[in-house]
Design brief:
The complex is a heterodimer.
Chain A: H1 2-32, E1 36-41, E2 45-46, E3 49-50, E4 59-60, H2 61-70, E5 74-90, E6 93-102, H3 105-109, E7 114-117, H4 122-127, E8 131-134, H5 136-142, E9 153-156, E10 159-167, E11 172-173, E12 176-177, E13 181-185, H6 186-194, E14 203-204, E15 206-211, H7 214-231, E16 242-246, H8 247-290, H9 292-300, H10 305-342, H11 350-377, H12 380-385
Parallel strand pairs in A: 6-13, 8-10
Antiparallel strand pairs in A: 1-15, 1-16, 2-3, 4-14, 5-6, 5-9, 5-15, 7-10, 8-13, 9-10, 11-12
Chain B: E1 3-16, E2 19-32, E3 36-40, H1 47-54, E4 62-67, E5 70-71, H2 77-87, E6 88-91, H3 103-113, H4 118-131, H5 147-159, E7 165-169, H6 177-192, E8 196-201, H7 204-208, E9 212-217, E10 220-225
Parallel strand pairs in B: 3-8, 3-9, 6-7, 7-8
Antiparallel strand pairs in B: 1-2, 1-4, 4-5, 9-10
């Protein structure tokens, strides 16, 4: 029974994990969009060790504004300054989340729709007001269900902010959980939270550039590079102090990865089906072998070959069905846990349940029935003597 | 008295690696209803083979076998299974109980194949176990019982369908001498109540308790002593 359960649940779980990862990769890729790129501040280097993109304050808000003005291919530009693991307190609730200072364009580029209230306004941005637009996960952690977050005060790094809106759930985008974040005016973020500005203006981690389409994005990238090098006074031989990530390139790379991923999921499902099938067959075979003596005893007291066969077939069917059902249940539960744990969508392909269950039944009946038929045909004396 | 068993010219030949190995050679044997018989002989004498044929666990190569007035030579496998179920009770040296079933369930087994309704099976099995002195161990598994108790369960199982004939193959072979005595006393008592019993043994003290001893050697009946 255990073998049946393990066989079936692994088929279901593996296909569910495969499909879930595939689906989440697909949605993440399409969420990136083919017409956006991100310009990040250059990697600071200490003794040749890169501290990662955005670790040096080489980009300013003024850079982003200049790009918005001077690059015709850039439809929209939004700057951001962010810090992770910022302490947020409301009453006696204390959480840590990502704090992101930005401007109004962030809302449209990331298509953040308010489910309650509004994104902060231009006036909030200009005045650097302490107002917060919060992600749905942050809302859920700070406020109980049914309680309105609008107008409530929260404390971010000990400073008081007023909640002006709550975003609809968006999930992951470019590896970042948009729901587990608080959005505040960039001006406020810069002066109140971060506070170490570059000499040339308001330091930012980077900015997003949205073009009309993928075609326009290539020219935008070229123009952005030129303008930034010019603004930063980088000579022809010097290297960029910023980095542009163009998602069109990543897209095409991902597309080929997706193809292999689909193939891999199929292959894994096939292999787990075979392994599960062998497991079930093995258990059934062993069970019949072990029980040849039992068959002999039953025949000695008057069982016919037919009644032996129907007994063993009934048992095989019960084991297959019960084991299969437990396996399906366990597989779905494991897939669900894995989906929660590793944050990919929970999908159970119906065919995997059908295949798992069908496999259990077919293999169970064949592997239980064929040896039972042979054993039932044995002369009772040979069956009795087996050990 | 009527004949329970009538055998004429029974032979059994095994084929081993292309060689014919005659195990029983022209056996003529009759056992009457209500008899208490021992079949004795050294190992290889053919006594177990004869017993398997008497018990319909195996078919003879040739010869006539009539059990309780029925000619068994022409029956197919399923009909033989019915004969074993209705006419014959087996007691084996190694008890041959199903380890996963309780004493009661083991005794009920032959009645399942006789299509006896469950309620009747339960009461008949309990009654049969009471007869062998195990009324207090109905729910015990074979592993929870001593060898003697297991053999009593096997005897209860052999009796439960009221067979015309009880066949015991070395019934005391796996038991100590005190328990052997108890089992033999039980079989003797059953015979006195009218059950025909045939015991295959190589133990002279066991054979001495029966009323007739059939000696076998090299596949033939050597002598019959009363």
């Amino acid at each position: 029974m255990l073998g049946v359960v393990i066989g079936i649940s692994s088929v279901i779980m593996i296909t569910a994990v495969g499909q879930g990862v595939q689906k989440s990769t697909a949605s993440e890729i399409s969420a990136l969009g083919t017409n956006v790129m991100v310009v990040s501040a250059g990697a600071a280097r200490t003794g040749g060790i890169s501290l990662g993109a955005g670790s040096a304050s080489t980009l300013t808000w003024e850079d982003a504004q200049a790009i918005a003005k001077q690059v015709p291919a850039a439809k929209s530009v939004t700057a951001f300054l962010q810090r992770g693991q910022i302490q947020v307190v409301r009453g006696n609730i204390n959480i840590a989340t990502t704090l992101l200072g930005t401007d109004l364009n962030y809302k449209s580029i990331k298509s953040l729709q308010p489910q309650e209230g509004l994104f902060f306004s231009q006036a909030d941005l200009d005045a650097g007001r302490p107002v917060a637009f919060i992600g749905s996960k942050v809302r859920d952690e700070l406020f109980s269900t049914g309680q309105s977050a609008l107008g409530a005060d929260i404390r971010i790094r000990g400073k008081r902010y007023t909640v002006v809106g709550v975003a609809e759930s968006k999930g992951l985008s470019a590896g970042q959980d948009l729901d587990d974040a608080i959005y505040i005016p960039l001006t406020n973020m810069s002066s109140q939270i971060v506070g170490n500005n570059a000499l040339t203006g308001v330091a930012i981690n980077g900015f997003w550039v949205e073009a009309a389409d993928a075609e326009q994005l290539n020219s935008a990238q070229f123009q952005v590079t030129n303008i930034l090098r010019l603004r930063h006074g980088i000579k022809a031989s010097g290297i960029d102090d910023f980095r542009i990530t163009n998602f069109v390139d990543i897209m095409s790379a991902f597309n080929s990865v997706m193809g292999s991923l689909t193939l891999m999921v199929g292959a894994i499902a096939g292999i787990s089906l075979i392994v599960g099938g062998i497991g079930i067959a093995n258990i059934m075979l062993v069970s019949v072998m072990e029980r040849t003596r039992e068959i002999g005893i039953r025949k000695a007291v008057g069982a016919t070959s037919g009644s032996i066969l129907s007994q063993f077939l009934t048992e095989a069917i019960i084991i297959s069905v019960v084991g299969g059902a437990i396996g399906v249940g366990l597989g779905i539960a494991l897939a669900y846990v894995a989906a929660l744990l590793f944050k990919f969508p929970f999908v159970i392909p119906l065919w995997s349940i059908g295949a798992g269950f069908g496999l259990s039944l077919v293999v169970g009946v064949l592997a239980g029935g064929i040896p039972a038929r042979n054993a039932a045909k044995l002369n009772p004396i040979s069956a009795l003597r087996s050990d | 008295m009527a004949n329970m068993i009538w055998m004429e010219g029974i032979t059994q030949t095994f084929h081993l690696e292309g060689m014919d190995l005659p195990v029983l050679k022209q056996i003529d044997l009759s056992i009457e209803d209500g008899e208490y018989v021992a079949i004795m002989g050294a190992s290889g004498s053919g006594k177990s083979t004869l017993m398997n044929i008497i018990g319909c666990l195996d078919r003879p190569t040739s010869g006539l076998y009539i059990l309780d007035g029925r000619d068994l030579t022409t029956l197919d496998d399923d009909e033989l299974a019915d004969i074993r179920n209705q006419y014959i009770g087996f007691v084996f040296q190694q008890f041959n109980l199903l380890p996963r079933l309780s004493a009661l369930e083991n005794v009920m087994l032959p009645m399942i194949y006789a299509a006896v309704p469950r309620a009747a099976r339960l009461s008949a099995a309990a009654e049969s176990l009471t007869k062998v002195g195990l009324s207090d161990r109905l729910k015990s598994r074979p592993s929870q019982l001593s060898g003697g108790q297991q053999q009593r369960v096997a005897i209860a199982r052999a009796l439960v369908n009221h067979p015309a004939l009880v066949l015991a193959d070395e019934p005391t072979g796996a038991l100590d001498s005190k328990t052997s005595h108890e089992i033999m006393d039980l079989l003797t008592a059953l015979n006195q109540q009218g059950t025909t019993i045939a015991i295959v043994t190589h133990d002279a003290t066991v054979a001495a308790q029966t009323k007739r001893v059939i000696h076998m050697q090299d596949g033939v009946i050597l002598e019959v002593e009363k």
